[in-house]
Each structure stands twice: as C-alpha cells, then as structure tokens.
Amino acid sequence: MKLRILKRFRFIAFWEGVSYLLLLGIAMPLKYLAGYPQAVTVVGWAHGVLFILYCAALLQASLTFKWPLKRSVLYFVASLLPIAPFIVERRLQVDQDLISEGE
What is the DSSP letter of 36? Predict the structure, then answer.
C-alpha cells in the first residue's frame, strides 16, 4: 500500500509539473501574444485539478510516511515553482526504490 501511495504521488507530481510548464510556456503566450484566451482556460483548468490532486497526494504521503513538517512544506513550495515538481518526482523515485528493495 505504501508503494502505491508513493507511485501515485510521483505520477501526479510529474503531470502537475508538465501542466505548469504548458500553462506558463504555451497557454499564457497564446493568450497574451496571439489573442487566444481559450488555451489558458483549458490548460489552467487541468493544472488546477492537478494542483489539488498534488496537494491531496502530498497530504496522504506525509501522513502515511510520517514525513517531517519541513519536508512536506518543501514539497508544497515545490508545487509553486515551475521546475521543482520534477525534482520532487526524482526524490520520490529514490524513496520508491528503497521501499521496493525492502519488500
């Protein structure tokens, strides 16, 4: 069960990071440079859903693994920075590998 929680969080972290980059790198320029605001509507909505899922998965993982508050706060702050969710995802990969080796 712990492995599944970690895998889910990794998956969500990766796609939340992708959606953030799409929002900032493609949708926003389309809105402001090309006059196509629908791109922000669609990508922004998807990113919003993924952000909420990220926060929920972070809470679940934090409680399951009894992470220190500092780590949980760092992972939350990472969701607010464009590239940081990918760093979180890589760190979770290391944790996942350690759990897999222990089973």
Answer: -
The span from the CA of 9 to the CA of 57, in Å, is 5
Contact call for residues 19 and 43 (beta carbons, < 8 A): yes
At a CB cut-off of 8 Å and minimum separation 6, what does 57 contact?
A: 5, 8, 9, 12, 13
Q: How far apart are CA 31 and CA 39, in angstroms?
A: 7
Structure confidence by residue, pLDDT tens digits, 17-57: 999 999 999 999 999 999 999 999 999 999 999 999 999 99
Cα 66 to Cα 64: distance, rounded to the nearest angstrom:
6
In whole angstroms, give the CA distance from residue 25 to residue 11.
21
> Other C-beta atoms within 10 Å of 99: how many?
15
The residue-averaged pLDDT of 54-79 equals 96
